[in-house]
Each structure stands twice: as structure tokens, then as C-alpha cells.
Amino acid sequence: MSIENLLPLLLGLAWLVPLASFVAILFFGPRMGAHGKGAATVATAAIMTSLGLSLAALVVWLGSHPVTVAAHGDEHAAVEAAAPDASSSTVRFVARLTEPAAADHEADSHGGPHGDAHHDGHSTEGHGDGHAAAKPVAYVGDWYTLYTGGSLQLSIGWYIDAITVLMFVVVTFIATCIHIYAAGYMHDELHPVTDGEVQLASGATFTREGRFHRFFQALSLFCFSMLGIVIAGNLAMVFVFWELVGICSWFLIGFYFERHSASTAANKAFIVNRVGDFGMLIGLMALWGGLGTLHFGDSVDPTTGAARPGLFELVRPEQEHHAQQVPAGLVAFSAADEVARLANAGGNPDELRHQVSAAVPGWRQQGYGRWLLFVAGVGIFCGCVGKSAQVPLFVWLPDAMEGPTPVSALVHSATMVAAGVYLVGRFFPVLTPDVLLVIAYVGGMTLFIAATIAVTANDIKRVLAYSTVSQLGYMMLALGVGGWVAGLFHLVTHAFFKSLLFLCSGSVIHACHTNDMRKMGGLMRVMPYTGWTMLVGCLAIIGAGVPFVIGFSGYYSKDAILAQALLFSRLNPQHTILYVAVAGGAFITAFYMFRLWFMTFAGTPRDQHVFDHAHESPRVMTTPLVVLAVLAVIAGWTLPGGFGVSGLLEQSRPAGTAASLTTTDLLGTITIPAEHDSHAGAIHVQATLTAFATALAGVLLAAAMYLKPIVSPSGVAAAVRPVYTFLVNRWYVDELYDTIFVQPALRIARVVSGFDRQVIDRLINGLALAAKRIASLDAWFDRTVVDGLVNAAGQITWSVGLELKQLQTGRLRQYVMFIVVGTVAIFVLATLLFRTSLAG
Amino acid sequence: MAEFLIETIGLPGWLAWTTVAGVSAFLILNLIAGGALVFIWAERKIAARIQDRLGPTRTGGRFGWLQSLADGIKLLAKEDLMPDGADGLLFRIAPYVSFCASFCAFIALPFAFDVVGLRLNVGVFFVVAVLGLEVFGVILAGYASASKWSLFGAMREAAQVVSYEVPLGMCVVVPVMLAGSMDLVTIGEKQAGWFTNWFIFHDPFTFVIFWVYYTCAVASVNRAPFDLAEAESELVAGFHTEYSGLRWSFFFMAEYGSMFLVSVLAAVLFLGGWNGPVPVASLLGWSDGTAVTAPYAVRLVGCANLMGKATLGVLVMMWIRWTLPRLRIDQVMTTCLKYCTPIAALMFAGVMLWQLFLPGGLLPGSRSQAAAVREAWLEGEADGAPVPEASVGFVPAAGRQVVGVSR
Amino acid sequence: MTECLFSAMLAQLPLAAVDWHGLFFLLFAAIACGAAVMVVLTDNVVRMALHLVLSLGATAGLFFLAGSEFVGAMQLMIYVGGTLVLLVFGVMLTAQTQLVALKTPAGDKVLAGILGAALFAVLVQSAVSIEAWRRPGLAEVAAPTATPLGMALVGVRVDAGDSESDRRPPSGYLLPFEIVSVHLLVVLVGAAYLARAKRRRTPRTVELVASVESSQPSRVDAGASESASSVLVETGR
Amino acid sequence: MSQLLDDDQRIIEFDVRTDEMLVNMGPQHPSTHGVLRLVLRTDGEIVSEMEPHIGYLHRCAEKIGENLTARQWIPYTDRMDYLAAMNMNLGWSLAVEKLLRYEVSEKARHLRVLISELNRIASHLVGMGAYGLDLGTFSPFLYAFREREKILDLFEEACGARLTYSYITVGGLTADLPPGWLERCEAFLDQFEPIIREYHTLLTTNAIFVKRTAGIGVLSPEMAIDYGCTGPVLRGSGVDIDLRRDGESIYTAMYDGYAFEVAVMKDGHYPRDREYPAVPTDAVLGDCWHRFFVRMLEVMQSMDLIRQSIDRYSQCKGPLGEPLKLAEKLPAGDAYLETECPKGQMGFYLVSEGAAIPWRVRARSSSFSNLAVAPELCRGCLIADVPAVVGSLDIVMGEIDR
Amino acid sequence: MMLIATGTVSVAHYLVVGAIMFTAGIVCMAVKRNALGVLMGIELVLNGANLNFVAFGSSYLAGEGRPPLGLDGEVMALFVILLAAAEAAVALAITLNFYNNHATVDVDRADDLRG
Fold it and tell me: Which residue of chain C is at minimal alpha-carbon distance from B148?
């Protein structure tokens, strides 16, 4: 089987297996072993199967598209890796559907001859920039078309490139670890649970049935949804699974839904996400209205069988060497007035079409459609803001810690928040420099705000939550400044070390039965595995490493971001603030992460009671920790052969983004630097050194405050009391929202309800009274006149019925004869009436 | 053959065709009658050997090889009794209905790749359908005999045969699905080559389903351990209790004819038909048209192959009959409805999935695929005169990715 | 030489002009119609069933002649092999002597005959009134329809033209097919349920059952005593 | 209304109603073991009532016995259970000897054990083979008859007859064994023993056989005792009675010094059940399978007894002893003795007024009582179960009708 | 006989045969008192109709051009056969139920619900 068939099969199965597990647990969950214990086995087996299939897909991918040259380190090599036409091993394969001759039945295979057949068909023609013309390898196709109406085609399809495969592996791997971990963590749910945090009105303790299987059911659905986003071949499918992820998060965050805090947090996450999704819907509509397709890649028209270009092709057409331009559809859409003018001028539709297409380049020059593309990009990004918890919609994420810790780990590392970043990465070709700038600023703000809040938080999970928000800001910023590989690279490495950190914190909470770091300390002695692995996680997240030699995974990804941001700020001096945010964020990150670690594991126990009860977690929980720790170390490495995550990512770099681009647009002149330029020696060295210095400074500060109390934390807090209060209260964002949105809404509601009660209700009561009066009048009329009539009618009907029932003899054979008589009569009548022929 | 008569001897068309029809009918009729004689003799000898006896030894010199013929003559000479109170017309007509059904089914059976009475496009279906008519004669006989034992036998037969047609049909559909045609000749041709091409060895599911088919076939021709309709220890002789002489022998011939029929069907559908385990003919370079005499030799060998396989099937039925006790009627129905039918259904699904997943991969969306099939079909039709065996596999055949048209 | 002469003589025979298709059509049509009429004329239910089999079997032959092999085989398998066996089964289950041949009043027969004749006249008139229908067929041997039929059932129409409107319904007969399948299933379940009747035991048999129930409680039909007079007749039928 | 219907306890559900039929199974029917007529009232395939009609083989044997001397009546006992004529002879002879208070020689005693147990094997072989026939398998029948023929050969050598032996007689046996007979008998036993395993393969453990017999015609011990069932039918229901061990002393004295274990299931186990096939899970104690299996066990048991008796008989020196005179005068009085025959307990009763000819002769037939329970067993079963049940009772019409 | 001589069967021939069967079926339904006889009449009616479908769908019988119904005719015939099987099963069940309750299959006695 060739790769273009094999990959969809493998990944499709990997995607569907969790669904099967979900369905199985849904229907048979309570019957799976005692108290549904088998559900964990089923779900874990499913996700492990997915992992296996994803790994197989990775192997298949690498078999056809080996990562031969390092993306890091050697910039020339990186350039070559990014330019497929220079490296013959990279096959440039675009689904053959683009060929007009796709009507014949061969086209159904969604394959046909291997991509080698028309290898280099465009790039060897010698146009200016070979890099910009490079188009990444992607396999696209549809499994099933749900609906076709007009130009809209909603289908279940796939868009598989290197990052898809990579994300599959990452998601399924982390999900596997978390499944295994959760099987141990959730064992309380196997028995009836007494939830002390729920206050019953009677004052009694609340006891409920265990929901073990339900947890794994939701987890399976979550994995299915996330994988659905990753494999999705069009925006509509993305949106569907986007919402599925949302609902799953609602299930999981609200897992302890009896707790007021949990249900509120779940609702909050859900509602905040809806705000973002509204923006996404706008973006979706803009794209569909203008372009008539939501497919990423090229697809086949369901009715004519002709090829139709996908979004990427429309925005970065191949004949324009993948340079970004506003698609004709959007131009014509926004130039509706002009089109109307042409239409009024007369001419048949064909001519009109011709005229319009001739006029489009001119309109494009006039700037038509630019705003629309901007709106579409920002709209899509709005969805990502919600899902990836960016400013201003980041408030849900810390509250989402109400869910069980494995959920936090999953939500924060591999699935939900990753979805936003992934979508921005996926959608990158369509985003204009303006949008990218917006993204970069939003990311920068997020990174800084979240990091500062994390400094003052005392809840171990909250610290991690804000750190997640902050790291997501990093990724967004990286993408915004053109660091496509850097951002997604950080997404992958972050997935590993953040899930590790969360699982570690879960282990700590499991041991201490509290989230409060102020009660911990010195746990290293009793929880060596957790402690060491968490240390690894902390080192990874701050990007520790020996500069220019080797480092934890975060070292590589963070360096890349830093370098890109630095380059960006060099080229766009007016946006230097972004680089400052990144560098400052790195410092704060190092500080609060080590604050966390020191408070938890180092020093002496602060609460002897907690310490005495602490114990190392069971093997089923520590094993994933160790595995993840190893990956947190090595995920960023590039092997001597050139193999590495970043190299793999480089393969699917969007077409036309390999070169720097300077545009003057809505938000002024922006230069989006080419990513490989950031590997240039000067930039690279400066970035690395900055990263190292900031991280070291942060760690030292943390050590000074919490390991060896040279500087008293409380002293510092007292010194900058207003700032400290501001941070402790999380920049008053929740309060701000409360004031701006919630309270006004409540006030309006109160007014409206008052109006309802005072005016409308009275009006209705009065009406009812009047109606009652009229009714009594009417009743009299009814009883005498109407009833009399009805009774008379009934009497007549009754007596007629008595006569007519003689006809119903109950004799089957008579009825048959009646039918025959009727049939013949109809024939005869028809003949008589219409006089045509006896046949009618 | 008709062409030969027309062109070489110069007979007018209608006479040539009539001659061919006559010859075919004669051959098939004699095949059944002769086969019945041979099989009855074989059954006696086999039963005897199984039971430490010798069986017939004298008639015809040695081995009693003329015993069945002698019995036949005896039956011819016997008085045809009809019970008082029997429904005369139905009583007389019943054996012929049974026999005709069995006989008619032979029309569509291929004995080698072109030795077939009537090559029907829906051959498999026709054979199974006509075979199902045999039960009608049995029911009539049971009813018309005015005997309670006969009635019991007939009722049992009706219930049993109607039930077993379900799993039997399901089993039969599997080779149809694999070959992409209901034409028995096409099905046979698809299994040409080494014995690994036989459908029984196609995949594990077909291997299982062959045995389900065989079980159901044994049941649908009323052989032990499913011979409820004539269970001699319970119903005296079941539906033919009141029959004697020639009429009884017609039932007998119908029974042996059906036995042979289902065995031939098993051979064609699962065991490679006329193709030997080793493709000797093609190894020797005897494929059609290379040598003048080769086709005839190939046909002869094919016939011998098929007969051998079918005979083996019949012999196994005899072996079973003389070894096992009889099931009870409810157990027979249980076997059919609770075991054979679900297993057949599962295996059917299994074969289908095997076909779907192993050679091709997940099938892409169906809409354009349907269009492609249509195009291909129309294209093929435009090529020339319609070909009888043209067929479309609804499931991709091995090695093909998409639904294709096979010819 | 003699052969040629012989064949020349044969060619002179009127038989040479025989159209076999027409002959077989006549044969099958005669059997079908004759047997159908016999169904009406016979009083005995079992014989009616026999005639019906003949009629339906001949109809299958007509289907074959019309080039619809698949439908013909289907007719044989389902109609003759399945439905009619079921019918005969029903006949046997209800085969009491007095029920086998119920007499119909002569008046009914006459009335039905008249009505039937009227209906027949109407039908035949409409059958022959359209000129196009009377035009003899081209009698070209058409391609077998089994495969197109199968394709039609899964949504591929090879017989229709290319235009979009000719391809309606776009999904072929898949949906009707599924509906029919579900319908069949429901019908069979319903029929099985319907045939399992509930009966009231009479007090007398309660005692009888009580004495029996100790050994075989479920199999005994004690309700039979109601019609004991009719069923305990020694003749059985 | 529906509520009413639901509450009415008198409403039952049943399948499609068909007409009830009265069906005669026999007297000319392949599987009624002779001239037995079973009148079945059937509802479809279900037998709602079954009634055996007997008397087609009545020969006034008892009345004839009142006109013959005791020894003269011996040939008539042959024709009662003609499949186990030796045991019939023995029963009558012992009854007369009980009246006469006569004791046979030691050698005759062992020879009687040898001969009667050999005939028990022959009888059970027929029962087993015919049972297979009842269930529709033909071959075991011939396998059984093949072995039975060898036993008949031995009998023929000893007494000249193959079916109606009149060998055991009042006061001993008509003749001593011919030379070399014992060796041939032992040779037979040696070659017969492995063949029993074949029977187990063909029938006892055959899945279809088990399906047809296990759980069918379950006869509870209470019912068996109530109906007076005896022999393997009784032991198949788990009642531990065997007259060879529990009978009257004149009969048990014959088996003095013989070691044997009654073939009956005790505590869920048959004696020495490791040597035999396991009891299938579907089988219920008292069903057809158990009755059949008890017979198979008794074949083994008889072989053991024969081996023991051959030892003892060959150790006995001296003459066999002459039987009593043909017209020996009987003392006044009466005697009744039951012996354990293959089919069950066969009892003979005679009253004498002092003449050589008994005044009254009566026989108590085991098959008669065993058949009497058949209607109970067949009620509600299927038609196909009727031969299975009746066959498992292993009746002989000659004994019932006498 | 004319057919034999001229040798071409037309749609109308089939229609006439169908009409005969149809009429026979109707008359059968009208005159049979046995419920199973009525059932047989229904089968005849369905078959007569089926013949029409097949005749209109047959390309063999059609003159120039496509047959009026084309494949649809055969598909319809198939569905009719299938539904006839279902109908027979239900009708038989009803008949047996009727027989259980009334000990007869005489449709003239099935008039419990008469007016």
C-alpha cells in the first residue's frame, strides 16, 4: 500500500480507536469489571493502540520523507531542509486532484502515481526565490462527505503533513502516560466517594457513586476530539472537533460537579471559550462567504469532479510562487459594489464572470479584500485565544484546575490549549502580517501577565496553570513573529515537560492532600522520584542547558523563540517590546518555577503533619513521570544524523514562508523575518546568552529567596505592596470582567425581571380577569346554542351511522367486490369524462 | 456444438439447437439416473464396509455392481400402491415434482469450463432456487398420502428446508462476492491455477464457511443426521411411507440427485470446480487454442476433476450417515438458527471486511466512486457486444484498489 | 451432397419459421394463465396451492424470457420456494377436513365472475389501446441485467443517461432497499409474535394441567379441550 | 382488560395451535421392540399423551405351566425374555428349588453364574445396539450383534441352541461344558474388552447421542419405586438395589464369594468411574443416558463376574450333578422368588398341591412394570423422544405378554 | 399461433397475461371462503402486477429506444416479490391467529367487527 493510502488509514484508525473506546465505555462502562474498573484498561488500551498506530505512521512518514539534515545548528542545512527542491529525498507531493483530468475513475484513489512524477514541476522554472516556492508535503483527501450544498462541502477529511504526524505521536503519547497515571490517581472513584468539599443543605456529608468509568469515557472522547482537530482536512471539521474538545473539557473540569467551584469553573471555561469561538465563527463565515471552500488542501468538486483549490492554494497560489495575496473570491466579495456596477451594466452571466475576473487584480491593488482577510485571520485567532487561554480570555485556565489533576495535565499540555496553537500553526499561510503582529502582541501580553501572576500564587497547580498560560503566550508570540517552527517546536517540548510537571504536582497533591505550597517543603526525602522528575521538568521549562553544547528540550525551543523575537525586533525596531517581553518572561519563568520547586521539595517541612503523611506515589503513577522526564530531556535534541523534532517540523513549513517578507499594510510596515535568518551567528549567540543569563538570574533569585533565605520573600512583598496585591489578585482581571460584563448583565436582568413582574404580569392578570368574565358569558352561549347544535349534529351522525353500519358486513369477499366495482367505475368514468382512451 | 452442427453438417438452425438441447437433456438425465445407480450401489458397499459386512456381492458377477439395476427393475415391476383416501392427483404428481426440481437444477451446473447445459448469468441463484422447489414435492407427497406419518415427515421437511435455505444462501453468496459474479462458470474460472486459488483457501472465513455450507447442504438434502423427514425409527419412513415401486424410486433418485447436486455446487463454489489442485493443463501449455485436441482433453480432465470432488462430497455424506445418530427436530432447528445462521452471517461479514481492508485500504467517499464504476461500465459496454460474464465486483477484488469492472 | 439435400429438405419444413421465443412465451403464458384460472376453479386448498406453484413458476419462465433473469430466479426462490411453502405450511396447520374445501354460494361465484369479466375487459382494453405497447420488440438479446440491477441497488445507475436528471435518485435504491430490509425484519418479528396466541384455559383443563405440570409444565397445550370434539377424531384430518 | 388478562392465572401462552392427532406407533413400527402398540396423542410434534397397548404376543404361558411339570415348563421360560433365556431358566429353576429346598452342587452353582452373566452381556448388547437404532444410527447395532453372535456360538457349543437354551434347569444344568470351552470363553472376553471402548466412542460419548438422551425421560427415584421399576431402569435413577446382593438367600448364595459392585451412581460417582467416560454435564440422574450407561457398566461387571466364575468353576472337581427328574413331585406349598435378570427383577411364583404339576404358576415381569412408567416419561416430549425413552427402558414383549 | 409465425412478442402480450392473472387473483379473492385461498388470490394479483413491471422494464420487449421503465421495472418487481413474502408471513400469522381463536379459516365467519 502506498503512503498516500497508508497514512490516512493509520492515522484515521488512530483517531477512531478512542471513539470506539468511548462508545464501549458509554454503553458497557459500568459492567466492565468491578465498579467499572475495566474502563481504565479499555481506554488505556485504546489510546495505546492509537499511539502504536501513530508511531507506525511516523515510521511510514520518515520512511518516505527522512529528516536528513539538522534544522538547528547548521543554518545552511536548515535552509536546504526547508527547500525541498534542493533535497531530492523530500518528495513534493500534492494530491493529484489538482489535475483537471481528475474526472476519470483513477482520481478516486486520491492518489494515483507517486508525487515524484511531477517533481519540481514549478521550482525548476527558475523564478526568483526557490525557498518561497517550496510547497510542503501534504496528503489530503476526504473520507466522507456529510453535506453538499451550493459551493459548501462539509466533509470528514484529512490533511496530513509532518506536523500532523508529529502531533499525533505527541498527543497519543502524552495521553497514554496520563491514562496510565489516571488509572492510579482516580482509584478513589472505584468506590462510593464522600466529597468533603460539598456542603449539603442538611449539613450532612455528601456521598455519591464512584465515577471511574465516566472519567475514562470523557478522557477517550477528549482524545478523539483532539486527534480530530489534528487530522482535520478542513475548517468546518476543525470547528466541529473544536467544539467537541470544548464540551469534553466541560465534562472533565466539571468532573466533581457537585462542588460549586468545579461546576462554576467548568461553566466558566465553556463560556469563555464560546466567546472566542464566536470570533472563530466570524472568521469561518468570512472565508466561506468569500472563497466557498473550507478545505485546507485542494479537493474535488463533488458534482463536477473537477479540482478545486483549497484555502492554502487560494491565499498562496502556486503560480504566484506561493506569495501571499488576497484571493480573488475575497476581493470580489468585498468589492461587491463594483461587481454590482458591472452587473448593472448588463451582459450575460458568463461575460460578467469574465469581467469580474479581469478586474480582480486591479481591485486587489486598490486594497479590496485585505480587511476581509485580516478579519478572517483575526477571527480564527479569536478561537485560538479562547482555547489557548490568551489575553483577554485566559481567565478560565487557572480555574480549570478544579478538575482532577490528570485532566489538568492533559488539558494544559497536549490537547485543549495545544489546539489553539496548533490551529494558528496550521492556518499560518492564510494569516497576513497584520494578523501575525496582533498574534505576537497578544502572545507577548499573555506571557508577561501570566508570568507575573504565577510569581505570587501559592497553589501549586495554579502556579503551573499560569505558567502554562505564559508558555502559550510564548508560542503565540513565536508564531506571530514568524517563528513557525519555533512556536510549534515549543508546543511539542512544552507538551512533554508541562504534562510531566502536572503529573508531578498531582503526585505531590496525592501525597499531601493539599494544594498549598506553604504547607509543603522538604518532600525530596520522601518522594525522590517525584522530586527528581519535577526538577527535570523545571529545568526543561526554564530552558536550562550548557550554551551551544547541549540542553534540556526547553533550551532548544526557547532559544529558537528568543532568537526569532530578537531578529524581529531588529528588523522592526518599533516592536522591540516583544523581545523584551520574551526575555523578561524567561527570567520570571525561571524564578517562579524554582520558587515552586524549592518551596515544595527543598528545605525543611513547613507543616510536619503534612510531611508525615506524605509518601511516594505508586508505581503506576511514577512510571509515567520517569518516561515523561526522559522525554522532557531529549525531546529537543537533534541526533547526529540530523533527525529531530525541529527537522521534522521544517518539512511542513507552510509554502512561501521561508523567506522574509516586508509588507506595508493596515498596521504599518512590518517585516516578518525568515526563520532561518534567526540561526545566523550573531542573533543566535545573543539569544542563547540572553536566555541563559535570564534563566540563571531567575533561578538564583529563587534560590536566594526560598532555598537560602538571603532575601525574605515577605520582605519583598511588603516592599512592593501595591504591586504584590495587584499580582495576588491576578491583575484584577476577573474583577474587571465582573465589573464590565457580569454585573451590568445582572443589573439589566434585574431591571428586566422587575419590569416583567410589575408591568407585564399585571397586564396579563388583568387580561385574564377580563377573559374570565367574557368566558362566563361565552359559557352560557356555549351550553345553550353551541351544545345544542353539536348535540343535534351528533344525533344526526349517530343515526346516519346506525344506518350506514349495515354496509360494513365484515365480509372480506364483499369488500373485494366493492373494490373491483370501484376500480372499473373509475376507469369508465375517466373514459367518459376525458374521452381520450379507455386507458386514461 | 450447435455451431458445429450448423456449419459442418449444415443442419438448419432450429434443428441444430433442438438436437443440442435434446442431447444435453439426455446427458443430464442419464447423469442423474446413472449417478443414482452408482451412488446407491456405493452407499450399500460403504455402509456394509463400515458395518463389517460385505454388502452386495453377487449380482453382476463381482462386487454386486449390478445390484442397483436389479433393484431398479424390481421397483419397476412392483405394484404402485395408492392408499385409500389419498389425494390421487397430488399423490401421483408429487414424486415428479421432486425429481424435476432436482433435475432442473442440473441444467445450470457447469461440469467443465464450457460443459454446461445452460450458462445462466444468475447460475448460483438459479440452482439454489430450483433446489428449494424439491421440498414442494415432499410436502405434496406428505399431504396426499393420507397418512399421519407422511404428514409429520412433510411438515418436518418443510420447516427444515425453509430454515436451512437461509444459512445456505448466505454461504453461497460468499463465493459470489469473491468472484464478483453469480455465473457458476465465472466463479469456477476465478479459481483456476494452483489449489491455493480455491475459494476455500481464500481466507480463514471462507474456510469456515465451507463447512457451514456443507452442513447446511447435508441438511437441505435431508441426509443423516438431518434426515428427519424420513426418520425410520420415528416416522416409519416419513413422507414416502405410502410410496412404493417406481414413484418411490423417483423420490430416491431425487434424493441422490440433490446429494450430487449440492456436492457439485460445493466443488464449484469452494473447491475450485473443474480446476485441479495443480494447473497441469497450463503447465503443459495446453491452454485453450494452442493445440487442436487440447481443449477436449482439458475439458475431459476438468470433468473428471469436478466429478471426483463431487463424489468425494457424496461419499463423506454417506460416511456421516452411517456413523452418527439422528438429531431431534428441535435440535435440527437449533443447529440452523442458533449456530449455522449466525456463524454464516459472521463469516460473511468477515469475508467482506477481509476484502475491504486487506487489498485496498479504507475506501474513500462513495459518490465519485459510484460515478467511476458507472463510467467504467458504460465504457466497457461501448467496447463491443455485451459479454455475458461481465460483472462488477462491489467489493474491490484482490490487487485492485477501487471498485473495478472485471470481465 | 446428400447431407446438403437433407438439410435443404428440412429447411422447407414450416418448422423452420418457428420463433422459439414466441413459442416458449405461448407455452409459459398458457401455463401461467391456465393455472391461475385453475386456482380460481379448484375448491381444494392444497390443489390450489399446486396450481399456484405452477402459475408462479411459469411466470418465472416469462421473466426469464423477458430478459430479467435475476427477477425470475428471485421469483423461483422467494415466491415459489419460500412464500408458497409457507402457505402450504399454513394449509397443513389448518387442514381440517371440513376446511379444506369450503363451498362458496353460487350467487357469489356468478357475481364475482361478472365483476372479474368487467375488470378483465378494462384491463385488456387498456393493455392493447396504446400503440407503442403493441409494437413488437426488437428482440435483441440484451445484456444480462443482474449486474446493473445490483449496481442500481447500491446507487450506480448504468442504464440511465448522462444528464443529471436521469440519474435520480442519486443514491440509487439503497434507501428503499434498507427500508425493505427493516420492513421484512419487523414483519417477521411481528408475524412470529402474532402467531403465538394467548388462550384462556377452561377450568376443567386447569386440573388436568396441574397434574401434568409436575413433569412438563411448559409444553402441554391444555387449551385444546375446547375443540376436543373436532380434533380427537380418529381420522386426524 | 389487558390487566385482567395478565392477572388471570389460567392463561398460558403456547405456540401455533395445530390439531391434535391420535397416532399409532406400532404394532408394525420399526422401533417398538416387537409387537408393542403405542397410541400417541400428539399436538404437532409434541406428545401430549401416550398409552401402550400390549397383548399382541400373549401365549398363555402361565396357564400352560399349570399343565406341565416344573421341568417341562423350562422351555416356556425361554420364550419370555428370549434375549436372556438363561436368566429366565435360572429364575424358574431357583423358584422350584426353593420350594423343594434343594441345593445344587458347587460346580453347578459356578457354572450357573458363568452362564447367566454371559447371557446378561448378550442381552445388554442387544439393548445397546437396538437403542442406537432407535436414535437413528445403524452401525452400532451390527457391531453389537457381531459380539453377541460370538456369545451365541459359545452357548450353542454348551447346549446346542442359539436362542432358546433350556440349559439351566431344575436341580442343575442339562449338561457340563464341553472341553476347551472355558479357554474359548476367556479368549472371547479378552477380545471383547477393548471393543467396549468402541461402543463408548460410537454412542456413550457421541455428542448427538448425548443430545438425544441426556435430560430426556427423566425418571425420579420415587416414581421409579412407585411404578415398580427394576433393573437398570431403577439403578439408572440412582436407587441402589441389585438382587444379586440384596435378594433372597437362595439367590444371593449363588454369588457367595463373588466380588462385584452394583452399577449405580452413588454420591455423584459410578463405581470405578475413572475407567469409563465421564458423565456428560447435560445428563440428569434418571434420564435415558443414565439408564443406557448403567447397562454398559453392567456389561463390564458381568465380565468380571465371568472371569471369577471361570476360576472357581475350573477349581471345582467332581461331577456337575444330575438335574431332577422330569416329573419330580413337588411338596405342597408355594414359593416365590425374584432374580436379577438383565431387564430387571423377574419373579416366578408357583403353588403346589403335592403333585408333580404345580397348581398355579405366575410370572412377574420386569419389562411390564418398566413399560408402565413410559407414559409418564413420554408426556410432553417430542415424537422423536418416544423411541428414545421406550428404547432406554429396554423392554421385551415376550416377557410382558407371556 | 400468430406469434409463432411472426415471432415477436410485444409488451401488450405480457400485459394481457398479467391482466388474466390479475383478474384470476381478484376473482379468487372474491370467491374463496378459505382465508388461505384469499391469500393465494393476493399472490396472483401481485404477480400479475409484477408481470407488468417486468414487461415495461424489459429491453428485450421494447421497441426502439429505452424501455419505458428500464431497470426501475425490475427493481420494482424485486421489491414487490420481497414485500409479497412479508405480506404472506403476516397474513399467515393472522390466519393462524384467527384459526386459534375461531377454529376455522372461513373468512365469512370473520365478521366479529361487522356494523
Answer: C236
B392 contact residues in C (CB cutoff 8 A): 147, 150-151
Average pLDDT, chain C: 68
Report the CATH number at residue E50.
1.10.287.3510
- In the three-class reduction of DSSP (H, G, I as helix; E, B as strand; rest coil), residue B28 is classed as helix
Q: What is the pLDDT of residues A250-262, one digit of tens each?
A: 888 888 888 888 8
Asked whether residue E1 is domain-assigned, the answer is: no
For chain C, give the number of residues: 237
Q: Which of these CATH numbers, 2.40.50.140, 3.40.50.300, 3.30.559.10, 1.20.120.1200, describes C1-100?
A: 1.20.120.1200
In D, which residues are within 8 Å of C230 by CB distance?
A: 19
Instruction: Say yes or no: ipTM exceeds 0.85.
Output: no
Phi (first) and psi of residue D171, to 5 degrees: 90, 10
Judging contact as 3 or more Cβ pairs under 8 Å, the answer for C and D is yes
Q: What are phi and psi of B353, to 5 degrees?
A: -65, -40
B294-311 per-position pLDDT tens digit: 567 777 778 888 888 888
Q: Which of A179, A171, A265 is nearest to A225 (CA)?
A: A171
Contact A102, A141 (CB under 8 A): no
Q: Check: CB of residue A312 under 8 Å from CB of residue A322.
A: no
Residues near A824 by beta carbon (within 8 Å), at least 6 away in sequence: C115, C118, C119, C122
**H-helix segments, A729-811:** 733-737, 743-755, 761-781, 787-804
B372: its cell numbers: 467511476
Q: What is the pLDDT of residue C2?
A: 45
A–D contact: 3+ Cβ pairs < 8 A: no
Q: What is the pLDDT of residues A420-469, one digit of tens each?
A: 899 998 888 888 888 888 999 999 999 999 998 888 888 888 888 889 88
Q: Which of B374, B378, B379, B391 is best to mutate for the C interface (most C CBs within 10 A)?
A: B374
Q: What domains lie within chain D, and their CATH numbers?
A: 51-401 (1.10.645.10)
C-beta separation of B94 from B138 below 8 A: yes
Query: Which candidate, A507, A621, A493, places its Cα nearest to that of A554?
Result: A493
Across the beta sheet with D20-25, the strand order is: D20-25, D37-43, D46-53
Measured CA angle at C100 (ends C97, C103), to 5 deg: 110
DSSP three-state, residue A541: helix
Total domains present in chain E:
1
Helices then strands, counting H and E runs in chain C, come out as: 12, 1
∠ CA A369-A375-A379, nearest 5°, is: 150
How many Cα neighbours within 13 Å face the side chain of D282? 16
From the CA of D212, how many Å to the nearest CA of chain B? 7
Query: Do residue C196 and residue D22 have CB atoms under 8 angstroms apart?
Result: no
CA dist A275 and A272 (Å) reads: 5
Dihedral of CA atoms A192, A194, A199, A200 in degrees, nearest 10, equals 40
Contact assignment for B12 to C11 by CB distance below 8 Å:
yes
* B200 contacts: CB under 8 Å, gap ≥ 6: B206, B207, B210, B270, B271
Q: Do C122 and A838 touch (CB under 8 A)?
A: yes
Distances (CA, A) of D141 to A113, B120, D120: 71, 47, 17
Parse chain C into domains and list their residue ranges: 1-100, 143-216
> Residue E36 sits in which domain range?
9-107
Q: Collect all residues with Cβ–Cβ distance below 8 Å to A513 and sequence separation of at least 6.
A: A610, A613
